[in-house]
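Record pair follows.
FIRST:
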Amino acid sequence: MLFGMLIAPYVFPYSNATVAIVMSAMCWAVVAVVYGMFVSSMPRSGGDYIWMSRTLHPAGAYGLCWFQIIIFGAWTYFNTTAAASIGVLPLASFFGLKGVVAWITSFQGVFLWASFWIIAAYLVVVAGMKVVAWYQRIVFPLLLIALAVYVITAFWFGHDAFVATFNSQFNSAFNTSNAYQFVIDQAPTPKTWHLDLWQCFLVVPVLPVGIAVAYGGPQIIGEVKGIGRLRTALWTFVGTSFAQAIEAGLATAAFFYLAGPVFISAIGYQFAEGTALGAQMSQSMFVTYINMLMVKQPILVLLIGLGPIFANMMYYPYPYLMISRYLFGMSFDRLLPTKIVEVERRTRSPIYAVTFVLILNLLWAFIISYYSEYTVWYLGSASIGYQFLPLGVVIAGLFFAYRARTKSIWEVSPASKYKLGGVPWITICSAISVVFLVYSIWGTWTFPFYGGSDPRSLLSYLAVFIIAVIAFYYAAWYRKTKQGIPISLAFTQVPPE
């Protein structure tokens, strides 16, 4: 989201992150409708994997989902580091905790901080879904309180207070009497501003509002009461997308009002181009630290810092839930050993599957903590990968109502009665979603400073996909020739919840 707030206004002049977030939410809401209709039709384990494997082809679904498994195995790590850089680091700086600042910015500190929360999230999931629900019921209200404090204080103190605070912090460092204006003058960016909706739309691909659907969707299947009802499914998926958009939109609107669009564009240039001026300011701290200095009151400062911490904590358990559901679907299809999805009786948690995600998370945490040069490559791979999976889902949505092996499922689905001119709404929404996601992937690939255009990002995606497809055909060959089990029969069934 920092790219959309700080870098995008420089790359796309006259854009506004809040407007772009609204546009992104509207586009992803159409994708969310497709997800909701799939869920009401097949509210079973496996999620995206089951929908694509039953509608399109199991090998393609296997390849797409394995990249998702590998790349999102690091997502807890990145959520913890975001919480540290935007929450913990500015808090420690404000309260003068130099030891904490030095530790949390060291390789070892980043790894240990991330590992603690990765293991904590693992223990929450292992304890069962009741504990996960309890965890989220605590974290979410705290997030809302912290967000409200950030937004209210931003509009209460206002732009002039931000400018004065920024100047008091950086005048001496920049050797000027007006550091705010100095940053603007040193950047080859527009000195006036007006809203350009087309430029806003160009920002949409780099605003991960859709991650609530592509990343959060699979883990809530079966965990929401009555998810098989179309209304519940649509409210769950579309609502999740808009809830994230509202959260991000309020935060970006507050920052836009405080800093001003001309200044944001100028500072985006300093950060994106790696100028000496930009090096004197912390990109990750910038969104919250100046606010803390402006507000000054310790309790309010603490709540401002806790906002990004709680926002990221909401997502800590998600990879464990999402990946374990994929593994269950693959195991049902005899593509993986059934042992990996064995469920512990008391907590009903798939211990082995969740432990696999733990190991994956810790491995990623070690690699990226100590070899940070892979961060841009990883972010590029993730930004592409998380969009390819829903692209596969919406392509499946195009054919779901018509394929012979899924038509019987569709006909008894509560979504089947909704049509426009005889064409099912799932087909219409899928067609719109395909166009949007192709555009979004193109935008991610061509957006500078983001990592998507790094050839390693696409090559890594293709490598994982090809290896997974080869593994699929090997598993099918092994089951048939060595065990006499034609796994093709599994793809005519939907696994139980």
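SECOND:
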Amino acid sequence: MGLQDTILALKWVQTNCVFFGGDPSRITGIVGDPSPFNILVFGESSGGQMIRALMASPKAKGLFKRAIIQSDPQNYPLENRTVSQGVVGEYALSQMGCSTLSCAQGLSISQIVSATTLVSNVAPYLNPAVPITPLSPTIDGTWVAGDWSALIASGSLPNQVDVIMGIYCYWAISNE
């Protein structure tokens, strides 16, 4: 999931909303100012996991003020760096026919997308340490400070914002 892209998009909205008819007075705050902008972020399912990652990201500090997390499978943890690089990264490189990141950077988008699909479907079964969502945001101490639940418990969540959480009661078993 593109945590860095999401943070960049939030910064872009702050800078450019006026050019699309947005009301700059509703986007309160200044980039770099510790008070949050008056922006609400919403995520459903894996999008909810992204909202948890944004709340755990020091790089997103002050970029939003409120969050809605809907049907976030809380048991899908954010990855740790060892699993992300070691198990998932090595498997992804092998599926691209590469052994280094520089090799992968020279591949076409279609080759990378094909490998990504395989990683999503197979990586959780390679090692018990790999979460069921192997391409989730990674706890690296810079972009994601730590596990969302642990950060809340310790009072050190980087983005302590207003949150509404909900779940659709038949979400995982619906036939629709």
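COMMENT: The helical segments are 3-16, 46-55, 81-95, 101-105, 109-122, 148-154.
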